[in-house]
UniProtKB/TrEMBL annotation:
<dbReference type="Pfam" id="PF00248">
    <property type="entry name" value="Aldo_ket_red"/>
</dbReference>
<dbReference type="InterPro" id="IPR020471">
    <property type="entry name" value="AKR"/>
</dbReference>
<dbReference type="InterPro" id="IPR036812">
    <property type="entry name" value="NAD(P)_OxRdtase_dom_sf"/>
</dbReference>
<dbReference type="GO" id="GO:0016491">
    <property type="term" value="F:oxidoreductase activity"/>
</dbReference>
<keyword id="KW-0560">Oxidoreductase</keyword>
<comment type="similarity">
    <text>Belongs to the aldo/keto reductase family.</text>
</comment>
<feature type="domain" description="NADP-dependent oxidoreductase">
    <location>
        <begin position="4"/>
        <end position="148"/>
    </location>
</feature>
<protein>
    <submittedName>
        <fullName>3-oxo-5-beta-steroid 4-dehydrogenase</fullName>
    </submittedName>
</protein>
<keyword id="KW-0521">NADP</keyword>
<dbReference type="InterPro" id="IPR023210">
    <property type="entry name" value="NADP_OxRdtase_dom"/>
</dbReference>
<dbReference type="InterPro" id="IPR018170">
    <property type="entry name" value="Aldo/ket_reductase_CS"/>
</dbReference>
Length: 174
């Protein structure tokens, strides 16, 4: 069983998802090692001191000891804080200069602590990915670069799916 969730995308229902996981494990339907859970670091938590607490909040809500994959949701940062889409008084998004390498180091520390099994990124272009890959002292390479391209038709998605037997088409509900 594979779950790709984020606090934002799961409609803030990580508690309910965690409850369902625990219930099915307790009933013997599934074992934890049979579940692949992918969590996401949201863009208002890129400051290194915010990375682990945000992950721990997810783990607490899910009542899991670790996530299988934890990815940087997107390569641009918003103003740090708990507001998902911080905006100014005119409604403009408040972006923030961040150091993706420092964020990555904080993620590596989470992996070292056993809170995540693997690390990845999402929607990174080549330059952004190379920034991480060429980081001095890199401990762990990203294992994935999850790309969302909402312009693809279902037929195009299925042709991409056919290229790799291990990749399954996942319908996105928007």
């Amino acid at each position: 069983m594979s779950m790709n969730c984020a606090f934002l995308y799961s409609f803030k229902n990580e508690d309910e998802v965690g409850e369902a996981i625990r219930e099915k494990i307790a009933e013997g339907w599934v074992k934890r090692e049979d579940i692949f859970y992918c969590g996401k670091l949201w863009s208002t938590h890129f400051e290194p001191e915010r990375v682990r607490p945000y992950l721990e909040k997810t783990l607490q809500a899910l009542q899991l000891d670790y996530v299988d994959l934890y990815i940087i949701e997107m390569p641009m940062a918003f103003k740090p804080g708990d507001e998902f889409y911080p905006r100014d008084e005119y409604g403009n998004w408040l972006y923030h200069n961040s150091n993706l390498c420092a964020t990555w180091e904080a993620l590596e520390a989470c992996k070292d602590a056993g809170l995540v099994k693997s690390l990845g990124v999402s929607n990174f272009n080549r330059r952004q990915l190379e920034l991480i890959l060429n980081k001095p002292g890199l401990k762990y390479k990203p294992v994935s670069n999850q790309i969302f391209d909402f312009s693809l038709t279902e037929e195009e998605m299925k042709s991409i799916e056919a290229l790799n037997k291990d990749v399954r088409l996942v319908d996105l509900l928007l």
